[in-house]
Amino acid sequence: MFKRYGAILATVALLSCSGDGPSAATFPTYEGQVISVYVSSTGFRSLVLDRDDVTTSPEGRVTIHVDHPAGGPTLLRWAHGGLARWDDIQVGQSATVWTNGIEMRSLPPQAYAERVTLEAR
What's this model's pTM, rounded to 2 decimal places? Predict the structure, then answer.
């Protein structure tokens, strides 16, 4: 009996993880204006957001790592739904970021992006 319920729970868990966007367990979400876009000396791409929900600096900023090996591939999209490219990210642009892990505590905090949605300028 317990084996049957375990199989049902495993099936429900797998089905709930499918889909075309961040999973329900994805956290946290950042929204703000892009204030820096750069590629590190090791080739890792990152952007810095001035967060909408925090008004003090540097606490109001967050570094978002895009396509970093520790975070996996990042989906870049326009707000209207089309695919975006790394070269489309510009300083001054509004962005929404879903992460795929914990926020690393530093100043500014850092996170790995699962998806970045860009507003057209």
Answer: 0.71
